[in-house]
TrEMBL record:
PANTHER family: NMRA-LIKE DOMAIN-CONTAINING PROTEIN, QUINONE OXIDOREDUCTASE 2. This is SDR family oxidoreductase. The keyword DNA damage does not apply. GO terms for molecular function: NAD(P)H dehydrogenase (quinone) activity.
């Protein structure tokens, strides 16, 4: 029995969809805090909350493989993850597949050290639990490029991000979900960590050229100083918290945190992952 968490989000829902295309629904269950939000999934739904260890232990009973999507509450994430790991151990879960995070700098000096630290500590907790595990080290979502740079780039003619010449091996959420399903339905993955990145990496300068080719006009990439970037976002009415978050991700890209191309994703998929021009054509080629 496979239990998929995070089914109200894009990734967990896509994993579930991939599984149901290839195995009987009786082999799969979904974890939800509020079952009413996941009606129509065509699988058994187990109710539990990452904040409630007892509910997790009950939901994990009889589960062979847990697809563990990291929580989105950054402030409480580590405590929640420890609850999940402890409950999985107590319930006798046979294998944890955890959606972790691609990174180069594990020293705490990274611009996104808080995010990375939570994942690193979760990985350590899983290792210490003794439950067999697989870590899927996700790169930044390819789908997030339009969110980072804005959908009005063809109109403004500018990508404005303080990421310098840093590159990212973006991978699409749908590819990550399909690869996860492949792992969930096969054997031999215990104790392994997979670099789920694309086969190459791209800078925002590269992205500007790709979009320019799609829309038929020159797109300029401007990399401001952090101070200029924050001031611009403030003028646009972006909250201080959101602006700081956007800056942190850009500076992490500049530092090369996600410049980690590899072959693992291609190998697990059995095909080439989606490339930036494919997604960007859908967004900007209308």
């Amino acid at each position: 029995m496979i239990l998929v968490t995070g089914v109200t989000g894009h990734l967990g829902k896509a994993v579930l969809r991939n599984l149901l295309q290839r195995t009987d629904a009786g082999n799969v269950a979904a974890l939800a805090r509020n079952p009413a939000k996941v009606e129509g999934l065509h699988v058994a739904v187990r109710q539990a909350d990452y904040n409630d260890p007892a509910s997790l232990e009950h939901a994990f009973r009889g589960i062979d493989t847990l697809y563990f999507v990291s929580g989105n509450d950054v402030q409480r994430r580590l405590e929640q993850h420890e609850n999940v790991v402890s409950a999985a151990k107590e319930a006798g879960v046979g294998h944890i597949i955890y959606t972790s995070f691609q990174r180069k700098d594990e020293s705490g000096r990274s611009p996104i050290a808080d995010v990375a630290g939570g994942h690193l500590k979760t990985e350590a907790a899983i290792r210490a639990s003794g439950v067999p595990f697989t870590f899927l080290l996700h790169n930044l979502y390819l789908d997030f490029i339009p969110f980072f740079i804005g959908k009005d780039v063809p109109d403004t003619g500018v990508i404005y991000q303080p990421a310098g010449n840093g590159k990212t091996a973006f991978a699409s959420r749908d590819d990550l979900a399909e690869a996860a399903a492949n792992i969930l339905l096969s054997v031999g993955h215990e104790g392994k960590s997979y670099n789920f990145s694309n086969m190459a990496a791209w800078s925002y300068g590269d992205i500007a050229e790709i979009i320019g080719g799609i829309v038929g006009k020159k797109i300029e990439y401007v990399s401001p100083t952090p101070q200029e970037f924050l001031a611009t976002l403030q003028q646009q009415g972006v909250s201080a918290e959101a602006a700081d978050g956007a800056l942190a991700w850009a500076l992490a890209i500049k530092a090369g945190e996600f410049d980690t191309p590899g072959q693992d994703l291609e190998r697990i998929l059995g095909r080439a992952p989606m490339q930036p021009h494919e997604l960007l054509a859908k967004v900007y080629g209308k």
